[in-house]
Amino acid sequence: MARPRSFDADTALAAAVDDFWDSGYGATSTDELCRSTGLSRSSLYNAFGSKRDLYLQAILRYAAEKQGQRADLLATDLDGRALLRVVLTTVLDEQWGDDDRRTCLMINACVEVGSSDEEVRRALADNADDFRRMIADVVRRGQLDGSLTDRATADQLAAVLHAAVDGLQVRSRIDRDRDPVDDAVSTLLTLL
Amino acid sequence: MARPRSFDADTALAAAVDDFWDSGYGATSTDELCRSTGLSRSSLYNAFGSKRDLYLQAILRYAAEKQGQRADLLATDLDGRALLRVVLTTVLDEQWGDDDRRTCLMINACVEVGSSDEEVRRALADNADDFRRMIADVVRRGQLDGSLTDRATADQLAAVLHAAVDGLQVRSRIDRDRDPVDDAVSTLLTLL
DNA sequence: ACCAATCTGGATCGATCTGTCCAGAACCCG
DNA sequence: CGGGTTCTGGACAGATCGATCCAGATTGGT
Q1: What is the CATH number of the domain that holds A150?
Q2: Which residue among A9, A99, B33, B86 has the highest number of C-beta atoms inside a 10 angstrom radius?
Q3: Is A126 within 8 Å of chain B by CB?
Q4: Which of strand C's nucleotides are less than 7 A from any protein C-beta?
Q5: Among candidates A109, A92, A77, A83, which has minimal Cα distance to A175?
Q6: Distance between CA A159 and CA B164 in Å, rounded?
Q7: B165 lies in some domain
Q8: Is the Cβ of B26 closer than 8 Å to some Cβ of chain A?
Q9: What average pLDDT score do residues A15-31 get?
Q10: Which residue approaches C28 most closely, CA to C1'?
């Protein structure tokens, strides 16, 4: 047909994810996106449409990757309580392992764009639902094996756990010491 | 001495708070700040220094106002559990009453600037500490009057509650229906 | 080998950004 | 009432923004 692309679109998208994750949507310039992806402006716009379209695709890619990681975690044979602790600490490990202690890109997007872009909002809501479903699966496992409370349904507990881990990520942005965050996870688990 | 100011600095600062709250630091232009405050560029820069300085002052003003509101809540004579529910729902009422369902300016600032500005970071951390202290006071009241669990210390429970309410605010940015958020508050209270 | 189609580099556009600067207006004090 | 000081409006500077456009390079199909 014609001249083929000299770059891999998904590799470029991965670089864009990192940019948006670092700086958010507004503060990431198209120049920076060209630099990090290695594409010229023409190629960038030709491949992804606009900065906003690229942002949406970056969010979808990030969400898909997260969903895969969650499936991996569920494949272990830990009891419910132990697995729940792994789930919570894994999220925080990722954040504290990063120099800038970035919050999950989804949280950043919730705060920055919120409901102002319906497609983005839907992507964020879908991802949040997936994450809560995964947490609910873990809680259900714990309720069945007796390691977690059944004073509330798995879905109800998952909503609380999801909120708590998101809030702890926000806190981790400004805390210097991780101990209080880990303590909060332990306290939360003692309540379950 | 000389010509006096033709505007009230705190009124202007209040307008700036609203701008930054609406759009964050980066997406709020100095033109918009001039428009909402009614000041010319000269007056704005003369009074507040720079956009970044104005942002810091806006955050400090917002934090001071929040701290006053918290003191008011503590002055009621509800039992600990009832007061805790009021505290949590008050935060969410404020958000859901807003058309854009803005998250607390402090959360926005945590996500957007994080630790990249040490003065801002300190202001955010101080405010978070204040809020947690207030929650701990409420929990302590509930532990003394027997309406709340003492399976963990008040400080430990406050850390969990603070994280949860922050996470629920993030969720509220993209949820269309408030019920799941209220349900999460109820579930959280059943665990205490 | 040549045509048609796509991709790419880079210049460029118009808008917008933060911050500065200066001339003149407004005021207090003596 | 006048002098010295501060405030104010608006023009301006210099940089950067997202997006477009076009000429030329590169390819597959015939």
Answers
A1: 1.10.357.10
A2: B33
A3: no
A4: 4-11, 16-22, 25-29
A5: A92
A6: 10
A7: yes
A8: yes
A9: 97
A10: B1
